[in-house]
Amino acid sequence: IKAFHGEQKLQQATLMYIVSQLMSKTEREELQNTFIALDKNSDGKLSVQELIDGYTLVLGTKERAIEEVKQIMENFDLDKNGFIDFSEFLLASTNRKKLLSNENLQKAFKMFDKDGSGFITGDEIKLILGVGKRFSEKVWEKMIEQVDQNKDGKISFE
To answer: Residue 55 in contact with residue 69, Cβ under 8 Å?
Structure first.
């Protein structure tokens, strides 16, 4: 599981789980207050302009803010709707090194490993990521394939 790359659905689901379940109440409240302050029209999502306005105050120049917001939108607008919702904001705002600690990765791995076998199978990924979605078997196989280092059709923690 440690081998997966930036834009993959499995990594996104793992990070969202870690952020939503393992962040301290204080950290979450601080980020929620920041989100509310940035959300000028109170629609529950941050537009590119709201982000640019907020980052201009922090970074000092609009040019630097535009560059930062461009990176945020590319990396954290997971549903590609042109806005950053609160869960995407949490993901963008957390300290990835702390977030991806061995302990947190193990907890997330256990969330996917429904049968406790020590491996994650395509069926287990379907249970977590496939709720309400209709994907072909090839999609699930491809997800496993992307992180299955020993090519046994399962994902191990190592």
So the answer is: yes
- 87, 20 contact by CB (below 8 A): yes
Whole-structure pTM value:
0.60
Could you give the CA distance from residue 112 to residue 129 in angstroms, rounded to a whole number? 9
Please choose, from the candidates 100, 140, 117, 116, the residue with its C-alpha nearest in 3D space to the C-alpha of residue 1. 100
DSSP string computed for the chain:
-TT--TT-HHHHHHHHHHHHHHS-HHHHHHHHHHHHHH-TT-SSEE-HHHHHHHHHHHHSSHHHHHHHHHHHHHHH-TT-SSSEEHHHHHHHHS-HHHHT-HHHHHHHHHHH-TT-SSEE-HHHHHHHH-TT----HHHHHHHHHHH-TT-SSSEE--
Which of 6-10, 21-25, 37-41, 43-47 is the least confident region? Answer: 6-10
| Residue pLDDT, tens place only, 115-145 | 999 988 878 877 777 655 666 677 767 777 7
Chain mean position to CA 54: 22
